[in-house]
Amino acid sequence: MLAMDVTKEARSSPLPATSQATTVTSAQNPPQPQICAGCSKVITERYLLKALDQLWHEDCLKCGCCDCRLGEVGHTLYTRANLILCKRDYLRLFGNTGYCAACNKVIPAFEMVMRARSNVYHLECFACQQCNHRFCVGDRFYLCENKILCEYDYEERLVFANMAYNPPPLAHLKRQTTHLPPPPTSGAMGGLMNGSGRSGDMNNNMSGSSPAPFAAPPHLKPLGLSATS
């Protein structure tokens, strides 16, 4: 591959603009005509292109693939395999391809990409790899363990990592458990269900007397379970 600069110059006049005495001398040795390397014709236009150590018409120096005028698309041309190419077509045909760090698929050399340090991504793959949040202009992102994370998922991962590497001390856990109320015993639970014990009727507790037995109204009859065949 050979990359060459393209320069645009004004065509030199056939006779030098000097005094009359030197004009007579120049007439004996007239300047050589400027020949286009593309069409082999004399360049008569005001401007010409100079590339590959040759002179060109502006219309003759074109990309051998897309036919664009190389003097208009940039200041560099590429040559390979006897082809004169623009940068885009050179990369498309001979450029090195890469692989997306998210999907591991090939990225064509001419395709626009997103970069994070040394990683390269398709535009559609550049999203949080935890929650698939697509980043907008101005969003922060983090590269953690070679994965792109949004700010929320990155901070959440930091919290869990800190808990894993710095667990709370055992004395702190014991101090927290000592302040917990004791669980109710089975006898206390039975007393609560029977309507007796410490959690009886508030009025009865205040008077110090035991609660009166519950009597069903005369118009209601208690229901019992009976086995039927």
Automatic annotation (TrEMBL):
One of its GO terms (molecular function) is metal ion binding. SMART domains: LIM. Residues 1-11 have a biased composition (Basic and acidic residues). It holds the Pfam family LIM. GO terms for biological process: positive regulation of transcription by RNA polymerase II. Residues 17-28, 199-213 have a biased composition (Low complexity). Gene3D superfamilies: Cysteine Rich Protein. GO terms for cellular component: nucleus. Residues 34-96, 98-160 form the LIM zinc-binding domain. PROSITE patterns: LIM_DOMAIN_1, LIM_DOMAIN_2. Signal peptide: none annotated. Residues 1-31, 176-229 are annotated as: Disordered. Residues 188-198 have a biased composition (Gly residues). SUPFAM superfamilies: Glucocorticoid receptor-like (DNA-binding domain) (SSF57716). Keywords: LIM domain, Metal-binding, Repeat, Zinc. Transmembrane segments: none annotated. This is LIM zinc-binding domain-containing protein. The gene is 692949.
